[in-house]
């Protein structure tokens, strides 16, 4: 692959999902850098998000293809003239990417595939191979690394989303800050264990920066983040931005308790078991590195802890 490659014709799967919309926004902010921006979306989304899709067509010249991503003929046709594919498909659709990757490899125009990652590093350590939530993404990586001939790939590994990390979870034991009630649960025995976070807006920025640096991004994971902090530092920032008084209801969930909650959730097949496992991994330090790859992709300007806390307070009021 020539290093002079620049993506000009991009197709997105899952473009209006939780994280896809941030990736799409970041790309559309530099619309002139691309010839074609194409969204492949389901009939359900086309109906539910009709106004948004109409607006994207009208104001940003986004091409919207409505179809079933399991319809190989429809996907093959959608790939015509596309050089780069960004998938932001949700957890329920991770393995559906495998046929999409094989079709991309067979396409005469598609050169680069970014599978749906944007989260916890699924190859952080040897133990990562056993983690239940990682299995489907690992299977996707195996296809990209072993079964395709020409296709380049990049895994954009961002760690947990700061916006979601600070939000008070439905199960208060798994962490978060409840601004209205001034209640918080900090993960870890003392809240001083570091955790690396990326805001959802920054996921978009970092994917766009990845597209701008294909020569360093091909055939590897890029481990990026917005900032590294601790639950105690997040808590101090919430207190600072809510008047400077200590919050009265502050609890801690130790790693051993987090493991119990996680194990119970898997035993009883609760849908939030995946989330509990990920929070346990983050609390164990599974988001931390000596160095980040932000510099490789031009060190784009990113958000800070102050921004994240301010936004959470704004949304709670
Ligand atoms: N780091 C973190 O803290 C964190 C948090 C959440 C998610 N993530 C990661 O981000 C990626 C995207 O997740 P998300 O929450 O943004 O996804 P999502 O909003 O649940 O889904 C994104 C899109 O995928 C398509 N889709 C979803 N489920 C599908 C199914 N079962 N079959 C077919 N299509 C389906 C839909 O698009 P169309 O209808 O347009 O086809 C949907 O809008 C995942 O890899 C996830 O693990 C990371």
TrEMBL record:
GO MF annotations in UniProt: oxidoreductase activity
Keyword annotations: NADP, Oxidoreductase
Tagged with keyword NADP: yes
Signal peptide: none
Tagged with keyword Oxidoreductase: yes
Pfam families to which the protein is assigned, alphabetical: NmrA (PF05368)
InterPro entries: NAD(P)-bd_dom_sf, NmrA-like, NmrA/Isoflavone_reductase-like
Domain NmrA-like: 9-244
Protein name (Swiss-Prot/TrEMBL): NmrA-like domain-containing protein
Native source organism of the sequence: Aspergillus coremiiformis
């Amino acid at each position: 692959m020539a290093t002079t490659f620049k993506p000009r014709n991009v197709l997105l799967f899952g473009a209006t999902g939780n994280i896809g919309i941030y990736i799409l926004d970041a790309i559309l902010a530099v619309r002139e850098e691309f010839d074609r921006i194409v969204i492949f979306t389901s009939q359900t989304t086309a109906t539910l998000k009709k106004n948004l899709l109409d607006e994207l067509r009208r104001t940003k010249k986004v091409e919207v293809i409505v179809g079933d991503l399991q319809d190989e003929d429809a996907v093959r046709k959608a790939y015509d003239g596309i050089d780069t594919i960004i998938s932001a498909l949700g957890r329920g659709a991770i393995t559906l990417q495998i046929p999409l990757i094989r079709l991309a490899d067979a396409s005469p125009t598609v050169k680069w595939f970014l599978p749906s990652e944007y989260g916890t590093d699924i190859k952080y350590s040897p133990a990562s191979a056993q983690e239940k939530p990682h299995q489907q993404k690992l299977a996707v990586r195996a296809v990209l690394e072993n079964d395709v001939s020409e296709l380049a790939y990049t895994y954009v590994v961002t760690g947990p989303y700061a916006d979601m990390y600070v939000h008070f979870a439905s199960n208060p034991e798994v962490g978060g800050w409840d601004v209205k009630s001034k209640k918080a649960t900090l993960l870890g025995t003392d809240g001083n264990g570091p955790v690396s976070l990326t805001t959802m807006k920054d996921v978009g920025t970092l994917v766009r920066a990845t597209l701008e640096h294909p020569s360093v991004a091909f055939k590897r994971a890029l481990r990026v983040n917005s900032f590294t902090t601790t639950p105690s530092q997040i808590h101090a920032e919430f207190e600072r931005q809510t008047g400077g008084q200590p919050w009265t209801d502050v609890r801690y969930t130790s790693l051993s308790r987090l493991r119990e909650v996680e194990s119970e959730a898997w035993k009883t097949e609760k849908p939030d078991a995946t989330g509990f496992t990920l929070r346990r991994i983050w609390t164990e330090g599974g988001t931390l590195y000596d160095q980040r790859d932000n510099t490789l992709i031009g060190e784009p300007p990113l958000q800070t802890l102050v921004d994240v806390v301010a936004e959470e307070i704004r949304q709670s009021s």
